[in-house]
Amino acid sequence: MQGKKQAPAACFFSRACIADAVIDAMTDRIHTEPPKPFRCKHRLRVRWSEVDAQRVVFNANYLAYADTAVTEYWRALGLPFEQVLPRFGGDIFVRRAALDFRASARYDDWVEAGVRCERIGRSSLTVVCGLFCGTTQLMEVELVYVYADPQAGKPLELPALLRDWLTAYEAGEPMAQVELGPWERLGAEARPLRTAVFIEEQRVPVEMEWDDDDAHCLHAVARNRLGDAVATARLLPAVDGRTRIGRMAVTRALRGTGIGREVLRALMHASARRGDREILLHAQTSALGFYAREGFVVRGERFEEAGIEHVEMVKVLAPAG
User: Does residue 136 sit in the same domain as residue 183?
Assistant: First the structure.
């Protein structure tokens, strides 16, 4: 994971780079300023292997918690880390980690980690991770990353697109845009996603995945800020006011980020606008909670489809406003 990378042994940073990359984390600022909110949050549970003889979390494990949370931060950006950063020509390396211990977590505690990008320098990022158990703050971790050429070990200027991406996330802007349209316009982006998720990952037979319905459906494709298609689904034509959503696919690295929810909501809104009264879908049982949170309810018994356990779910639509 990215938080565990360290600057290569042959990588020597200039004084100017260090001045840009490193700020003093151990000041009274963290005690006197009101805490800033965290848009990205991730929950972890303390495992037995992470506590010491005093039954509290061993100090070094807090860095592992922060590293895990930073991984989820990149995911929340809609940015599959290992796939995207090489396209910019560089990678990020930890230059400094500063920890301010305030309280201890114990075995079986739930720890919530909040992450935000605190500062963007010329070639560096300062990321703050707050670790909490309930309302008690356990610690604050400040991580300084340097963006560098992984081969030469020399700092690089952060790409403008990455700067804008981070700034937009911290400003609360959406990390993906959903487009609706016919298969003729969106099929070239939806097809690779569905192939990767259904045919390659879930082993759905090719002949079951592709059908004549695609030509008649309204399709949705979500793109991240690089323009990469990261999620898709389709809405079938309505019959007597009843329709169906299917082929919901989200790229593996970005599941759980809310992008699939935005695709589903876009199709539900389109369905309501055209006057549909009810939406049906065949939900994989592993996704029951996802659809239930969007107002779908189970109807009928579980069944197998393409070798995967499913259940029918329905939602009655309110008239579009």
Answer: no
Q: Are 158 and 225 members of one domain? A: no
CA triple 79-84-85, angle to 5 deg? 110
d(CA 198, CA 178): 21
Dist CA 52 CA 48 (whole Å): 9
The dihedrals phi and psi of 304, each to the nearest 5 degrees, come to -105, 135
Global confidence as pTM: 0.82
Is the same domain home to 93 and 228?
no
pLDDT in tens, 228-240: 999 999 999 999 9
Radius of gyration of the chain (CA): 23
Looking at the predicted structure, is the pLDDT value of residue 263 above 50?
A: yes
Strand ranges for the chain from DSSP E = 40-45, 91-101, 110-120, 124-133, 136-148, 177-181, 218-223, 229-235, 242-250, 278-284, 297-298, 303-305, 308-316
**Which residue, 125, 140, 170, sits at the end of a domain?**
170
SS3 content of the chain, % helix, strand, coil (to 5): 35, 35, 35
Encoded tokens for 126: 């300062």
Domain endpoint, select from 153, 170, 187: 170
Nearest to 132 by CA among 31, 38, 197: 38
